[in-house]
């Protein structure tokens, strides 16, 4: 089932065929250096994450979903919404496989996901955490209309905290 779509992409729930690509992405240090605590995951940990995201949606009504290219139905990453640790705020997050970096996909899918959160889910506020060194992601957040608020610490890491309100 398609959750939402853009000109070139769509979001759907994860399927078994996504697990191998997720495992490759999550084991790549370049891909993971600005994600969460910046560490890589084993294939087993990575593959379990797809099931966890599907279960998360059932529990919360939103989740991180598979990002798929429309032209060839190829799984290229994940994007979605989740609670920050401590359930303080709902965060937008995204990660794309390296061959899809620099093509505007992150801006395209994150912008539509932000809109989905406000218009379809009725959220009043959506936040984002970004490493200060992650200039590409900071650019994405600015392009989709999120505003820098402050620095914040999670997992002993200082992040820039962005937000958007409906």
Describe this structure in words.
- This protein has a single domain, classed as Gcn5-related N-acetyltransferase (GNAT) (Aminopeptidase), CATH 3.40.630.30.
- 33% of the residues lie in helices and 33% in strands.
- It contains five helices and eight strands.
- Strands 1-2-3-4-5 form a five-stranded antiparallel β-sheet, with helices on both faces.
- Helix 1 crosses helix 3 and helix 4 crosses helix 5.
- 28% of the residues are buried.
Instruction: Provide the CATH superfamily.
Output: Gcn5-related N-acetyltransferase (GNAT)
Low-confidence stretches: none
Average pLDDT, all residues: 93
Per the CATH scheme, the topology name is: Aminopeptidase
**CATH architect. name:** 3-Layer(aba) Sandwich
Quote the beta fraction: 25-35%
The number of domains is: 1
Radius of gyration computed on alpha carbons:
15 Å
Largest sheet: 5 strands, antiparallel
DSSP E strands, number: 8
Task: Kindly report how far apart the N and C termini lie.
Answer: 26 Å
What is the H/E string? EEHHHEEEHEHEE
